[in-house]
Amino acid sequence: QVQLVESGGGLVQAGGSLRLSCAASGRTFSSYAMGWFCQAPGKERDIVAAISRSGGRTYYADSVKGRFTISRDNAKNTVYLEMNSLKPEDTAVYYCAANTRAPFGWSTPTRTNEYDYWGQGTQVTVSS
């Protein structure tokens, strides 16, 4: 069982920055691919970014490329999402997720059904 706890959400003005953190329980964090997803009211949960087990490979949704950065610290069992140049359309609940069965070390899963464990979510609100 893996427990994920997100933090760092909040209210920020357009153009501002936030850093989300996701702390994971367990001793095998370095064997999980990790992802960040967002879900706005009335919309599906979508991939924002994903990172491979070692952190050597990343994936970004087109809407956040150049503005968001995903990273991980396997010694601290934590994955981060640095969010810059925030826009009102980034407003959503952000979830981190763990994939424990990626077949390859360089995998960056992008679909919700590829992830086994989810955090409770953290609200990000960007005002115009």
Task: Write a structural description.
Strands 2, 4, 5, 6, 9, 10 and 11 form a seven-stranded mixed β-sheet that branches. Strands 1-3-8-7 form a four-stranded antiparallel β-sheet, with no helix packed on it. It is globular and about 40 Å long. The chain is built from no helices and eleven strands. By secondary structure, the chain is mainly β.
Largest sheet: 7 strands, mixed
Structural class: mainly beta
Number of helices: 0
Q: How many β-strand runs? A: 11
Q: Bin the strand percentage.
A: over 45%
Shape category: globular
Instruction: Write down the Rg.
Output: 14 Å
The topology string of helices and strands comes to EEEEEEEEEEE
Helix content: under 10%
Head-to-tail CA distance between termini = 40 Å
- The residue-averaged pLDDT reads 96
Poorly predicted runs: none
Short description:
The model has no long low-confidence stretch (mean pLDDT 96).
